């Protein structure tokens, strides 16, 4: 007989946290940069996205997901693409609790 405690939970259990994300109330363009966006415009948009994340009830789950699956685009869990890349490379990255 299978050891039930080792089986994965229902899919809803793995993703249900996303239903509580503050980002669900906003246009995805806040979290994902348009092609060619650079400099002050990108930093400003990233800052706006991170402000939403920092007040989000599922910040921790979102960040853990993004790091685990190596989300390549957008702001996830108050981390930008560049911040996640620095994390993977072992460089210090400012974190939100």
From TrEMBL:
Lipid biosynthesis keyword on record: no
Main location (coarse class): cytoplasm
Molecular functions per Gene Ontology: 4 iron, 4 sulfur cluster binding; dinitrosyl-iron complex binding; DNA binding; metal ion binding; protein-disulfide reductase [NAD(P)H] activity
PROSITE patterns (UniProt xref): 4FE4S_WBL (PS51674)
GO BP of this protein: cell redox homeostasis; negative regulation of DNA-templated transcription
Alphabetized UniProt keyword annotations: 4Fe-4S, Cytoplasm, Disulfide bond, DNA-binding, Iron, Iron-sulfur, Metal-binding, Transcription, Transcription regulation
Required cofactor(s): [4Fe-4S] cluster
Protein name: Transcriptional regulator WhiB
Originating organism: Pedococcus bigeumensis
Higher taxonomy: Bacteria, Bacillati, Actinomycetota, Actinomycetes, Micrococcales
């Amino acid at each position: 007989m299978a050891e039930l405690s080792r089986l994965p939970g229902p899919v809803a259990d793995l993703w249900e946290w996303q239903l509580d994300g503050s980002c669900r109330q906003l246009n995805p363009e806040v979290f994902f940069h348009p092609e060619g966006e650079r400099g002050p415009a990108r930093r400003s948009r990233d800052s706006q996205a991170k402000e939403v994340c920092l007040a989000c009830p599922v910040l921790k789950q979102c960040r853990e997901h993004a790091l685990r699956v190596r989300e390549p685009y957008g702001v996830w869990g108050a981390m930008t693409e560049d911040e996640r890349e620095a994390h993977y490379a072992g460089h210090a990255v400012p974190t939100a609790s």
